Structures are given as structure tokens and as C-alpha cells.
Amino acid sequence: MSSEEILREVAVEVSTCSKCNLCKGRTRAVPGEGSTSAKILFIGEGPGYHEDQQGRPFVGPAGQFLDELLASINLKRSDVFITNVVKCRPPQNRDPQPDEIAACNNYLDRQIEALKPRVIVTLGRFSMAKFFGNEKISVIHGRARKKDAGYICIAMYHPAAGLHQASLKDVIREDFKKIPLVMAEAERMAAAAPKVVVAPKKNEEPPQQLSLF
């Protein structure tokens, strides 16, 4: 299956998912959206009121701030892919519970596998925990780490944190400025990765050298 087909399959499954109790209060599930060839994947925490109404991620005030942040590094939503660790809105926008995150984990893993992003940006501590364990976001925000899967992961505060705490807005803006540098390093890593050559069958022309990435 192509990345587009996998992402579409996940979206269909999410739309009718009943793996946890969040399905009981949702208006619309929010599987995620963006370019199916995106090299940068943003992972937030969970949908809010506006996302639940529209079925799209980051369309409320935090989403407007995210759009501003993307524009500051010459990116648009159509250049990236945006999703959350849970695909349905938690009641009263409370924190997602461990069982809810676990219920959605397979969807997120399949999205990552389909996209094969060069860079994953976690937005908030719940998406950060998937990649950085119990580390504190106040300590590691803005720091990039290479992962064995071949991508670079960078933890950042959720855009909503900047709306609730004005002092964090500039911190988030400064962290976002690091994304182009992280992407450049990820591209360098990909270019330096081992190459594999598929042996031709009889009477076939030798194939072009293929990158593992």
C-alpha cells in the first residue's frame, strides 16, 4: 500500500473507532491531515472544541498560532502532516488518559510508518512522552535527538501553552526557528545512509541504485 492509501485507511478506521470511551462524546474524530509526502510530522495531544466540530487538527486559537509559527519558517500546513496522540476530544479538554493514548497508539504508529518523516516535532508533554519517556518538557524543549528509526525528534511546548502563558510564546517561537536546521541535518543523515542495490533478473536492465530512505 502507498503512504496515501495507509493514511486514508487509518482515517476511515479512526472515524468509526470505539476502542475507548472518548468515542461516546465526540462530534467528529480527528485523524490528522497534511501532505502524504511530508518530511515533517507534528504530533499534538488531542482535539479541542473546534477540532471536534470540524474533524481537523489545530483549527482553534492554538491552530492559528501554529500557522503563524509555520509561516515564520516558510512552511504551510500543506507542507507538513499534523496529528495528535488521541484522535477524539477528551471531555472539557482534560488531559488524555493512558488507556486513551494506548487505544490510539496503533493509529499513530501506522501514520509514522506511512509517512516515514525525516523530523518529528512533538507538541506538548503527552506526545513528547512517546519519544522521550518521563523527561520534563521544561528541560528538553527545543532539543533534537536522533532516533534509531532514522528520524530526528524535537520536543516543543504545545502552542496552547503560549496562549495561556505569555512568557512561553517567545520560547516557542525560538524553538521553531531550530526546525530548518534540524531538517537540514535529517536530510544530511538520509543522504549519508547506506544504499542498497537490487540484483537484476536475467534479461533485465540493472536497476538504479535505491536509497533505503
Automatic annotation (TrEMBL):
EC number: 3.2.2.27
CDD domains: UDG-F4_TTUDGA_SPO1dp_like (cd10030)
Name recorded for this polypeptide: Type-4 uracil-DNA glycosylase
Transmembrane segments annotated in the record for this chain: none
Keyword 4Fe-4S included in the entry's annotation: yes
Alphabetically ordered keywords of this record: 4Fe-4S, DNA damage, DNA repair, Hydrolase, Iron, Iron-sulfur, Metal-binding
GO function term, MF aspect, one: metal ion binding
GO biological process: DNA repair
Enzyme class: hydrolase
Family: Belongs to the uracil-DNA glycosylase (UDG) superfamily. Type 4 (UDGa) family.
Residue span(s) of domain Uracil-DNA glycosylase-like: 31-177
Pfam families in the cross-refs: UDG (PF03167)
Catalytic activities: Hydrolyzes single-stranded DNA or mismatched double-stranded DNA and polynucleotides, releasing free uracil
